[in-house]
Amino acid sequence: MNESTSESKIEPNIASLLGRGRRTLYLDMTDLIEYAKHNATLSGIQRVVANLLLHIGDWYNANGDEINVVPVIPEYDLERIFTVDLKCVTHMIDLFEAHAGNKSAMQHAIDRIYRSRVLTKPVAGDLFVIAGAFWIYK
Length: 138
What we know:
alpha/beta; six-stranded mixed beta sheet; 6 strands
């Protein structure tokens, strides 16, 4: 798996830094992507996280843009947080939902997510949500 990143590019939550009141909710999808590496259908908390990610657009339509919801894959051991492209994530989830995600297609989708990573730095007022199997975190 190619896990290259745009590590030289750090994108802090600029709106929060400028004091505009917009906050970011970082949604940790580590459990979902680890689950996707070994399973062909969604189950349990992975389905919950997948549905949260699929319905981000509904949140914006109902609440405006007061909170920016962003999927992330942290590297807790290195104290780094990477945002990932939501379109890549929803494509992976769609493979689960269609029950058509063969291993090759799923691995390709996972690789695309990792290639989309951008290092980020949360700021005061941002939120960080972890939903999943906490024992997978090192």
